[in-house]
Design brief:
40% of the residues lie in helices and 19% in strands. The protein contains nine helices and twelve strands. Keywords: DNA-binding, Transcription, Transcription regulation.
């Protein structure tokens, strides 16, 4: 708290509680907070800068000791102001290279690379991508998506296949939007034989769009997601996806924030954890 008095209360800002990835992040951040004697005030911002500003000022009024910002927080100016006030901050699942901010994230580049290498090994050559954006704005493509696409592109190029931007579509992060955008990708021309959806919510939307067109998964179209949320195992067929160590991320973000609050950590730390490809039943060799 800015008065110097500790309240043992922290803020967590996430863009969308309805996305199980963020629900799981919130759960683990809160669990770790409780273990360490901190209460967590959770705020869901809907990717809306006005809501972000409102919640940040509310959290400051409540004299929280520090804030964890979930990926999808793009108000760099607000972050810079908090940093100037020496306000303890940690960002989870997003990098802002221009800002000197502590982060805990997964190696998104590596995740994108591994998925693409795996799909190539199954014989796929035309691999579509559904990337995450928000407010229907292609300029808002998420940092994590950019990194995953960079991995996709490098793996393709390493295999001698050129990057085709016509195979990359952008979607808001909901099942309905993912379904609509995957539908547009499928209808845009000869369809790809595999689609890499850059999170599990988008992968579920993609499954729906593929089914609606009478195509079989994985024989006609293979699908891969990212996150390994609960959705990946309850969907039929179970989804091949990239596991993020969400529990570890939540715990490490909380521990880092507490170190900052207690003044034990003054240097900027960027913790990058390893992704893991989980092969299930939405992928098979191309016949
Ligand atoms: O929407 C969930 C996604 O946003 C996750 O993949 C996470 O890494 C974040 O960028």
């Amino acid at each position: 708290a800015l008065t110097g008095k500790r309240t043992n209360t922290l803020g967590l800002l996430i863009p969308d509680l309805a996305n199980p990835f963020f629900a799981e992040v919130a759960r683990h951040v809160e669990d770790r907070g409780q273990e360490k004697g901190f209460n967590v005030i959770m705020c869901s911002t809907d990717y809306n800068p006005a809501k972000e500003a409102k919640y940040i000022s509310l959290l400051k009024q409540k004299q929280v000791d520090g804030i964890i910002l979930g990926s999808g927080f793009y108000n760099d100016q607000m972050i810079a102001e908090l940093q100037q006030e020496n306000f303890p901050l940690v960002m989870i699942s997003q990098e802002i290279p221009a800002l000197d901010i502590d982060t805990v994230s997964v190696d998104d580049f590596m995740g994108g690379y591994q998925v693409t290498q795996y799909l190539l090994s199954l014989g796929h050559r035309r691999i579509g991508v559904i990337a995450e954006s928000f407010q229907d704005n292609p300029a808002n493509v998420r940092w994590s998506s950019k990194e995953r696409i960079r991995g996709y592109r490098e793996a393709l190029e390493a295999a001698g296949i050129g990057f085709d931007e016509d195979l990359v579509f952008i979607s808001n992060s909901t099942i309905e939007a993912g379904k609509r955008v995957a539908g547009a990708l499928l209808d845009a021309g000869p369809h790809p034989t595999a689609i890499f959806a850059l999170n599990d919510v988008l992968a579920i939307g993609t499954i729906k769009a593929v089914r609606e067109r009478g195509l079989k998964i994985p024989e006609d179209i293979a699908i891969v997601g990212f996150d390994d949320t609960i959705l990946a195992t309850i969907v039929d067929p179970p989804l091949t996806t990239v596991a993020q160590p969400i529990r570890d991320m939540g715990y490490q973000a909380m521990d880092l924030l507490i170190e900052k609050i207690e003044g034990k950590e003054n240097t900027t730390k960027r913790i990058i954890l390893s992704p893991q490809l989980m092969i299930r039943q939405t992928t098979c060799p191309l016949t």
